[in-house]
Amino acid sequence: RIVYVNGAFVAEAEATISVFDRGFLMADGVYEVTSVLDGRLVDFAGHMARLERSLAELEMAAPAGREELESIHRELLARNGVTEGLVYMQVTRGAADRDFLYPDGAAPSLVLFTQSKPLIDTPAAARGLKVIVLDDIRWGRRDIKTVQLLAPSMAKMAAKAAGKDDAWMVEDGFVTEGTSNNAYIVTRDGAIVTRDLSHSILHGITRAAVLRLAREAQMRIEERPFTIAEAQDAAEAFVTSASSFVQPVVEIDGTALGDGTPGPVARRLREIYVSEALKSAV
Ligand code: PMP
Predict the structure, then answer these.
(1) Which ipTM did the prediction report?
(2) What is the CA angle 69-70-75, rounded to 5?
(3) Which one of 80, 108, 155, 179 is least enclosed by Cβ atoms within 10 Å?
């Protein structure tokens, strides 16, 4: 596999980053994951806009402009022959002697790699996910897409140890989001409910697209927090992310939703989202 590191396309075994890189020492870095369908990028403009916002919130310099980042994405896809999968892009504040204060004038580090994998036909989408419920122990700026992923990593390990697929996290009695996705329920009277945007959750690019498509399909949407009790009593549930699109959730903390199979709203939204992504990918 060819990866991109600070200006060069190199074999992954040849790629190097300084041990003083603040991404490595302090998780002082942000990232984006863009899905690839038919060799094209899905919602690239949205991912770039969020990257710029994450960088601005952390007063971190951009490593390159939008056009250059886009051409690096395309070249890496071409070099690795990726038609379906993901592009991971990470920007860190760069290398500097270890200090809590941001260094003056460090050059940001830019790393990209690709992953080839099926995104449309996946067993999890067909079967639906079973989720456990955990306290949300992450920091208070989850709207910034930083590389500090140890809390969600621990949560996924706990889900695996329990024989389940993922975890929904709860803060002050309300669901924030999944470990790497935004969380939704569909009420018995057909409303799609997902938590409103704030510092408590990542502003999902897929969330924005799915809500837009749901509105266009005349579905009712309520952006507000919901509890696990409300979710367990809901008609259905699902999650969204760039890598999983829309995935049904069929069980929450041991309680099956409906008949325990993917619900019609989640299945329809997945279909609508995938066909729109195939059409609009660039
Ligand atoms: N929340 C969290 C915590 C995530 O890690 C992700 C995946 N990046 C999402 C939500 C979904 O965001 P997106 O649709 O932009 O992938």
Answers:
(1) 0.99
(2) 100
(3) 80
| The CATH classification of domain 123-280, taken from the options 3.20.10.10, 1.10.8.60, 3.90.1150.10, 3.40.50.920 | 3.20.10.10
Q: 51 exposed, middle or buried (CB, 10 Å; 0-12, 13-18, 19+)?
A: buried
Taking Cα atoms as reference points, which of 106, 129, 113 lies closest to residue 245?
129
Measured in Å, residue 105 CA sits from the centre of ligand 1 at 30
Q: Is 160 a catalytic residue?
A: no
Which of 145, 156, 164, 279 is the catalytic position? 145
Q: How far is the C-alpha of 98 from the C-alpha of 194, rounded, in Å?
A: 40
Portions of the chain given CATH number 3.30.470.10: 2-116
Give residue 180 CA to ligand 1 midpoint distance, Å.
5
105, pLDDT greater than 90 = no
* CB 156 less than 6 A from any atom of ligand 1: no
Question: For residue range 226-281, what is the model confidence (pLDDT) as tens digits?
Answer: 999 999 999 999 999 999 999 999 999 999 999 999 999 999 999 999 999 999 99
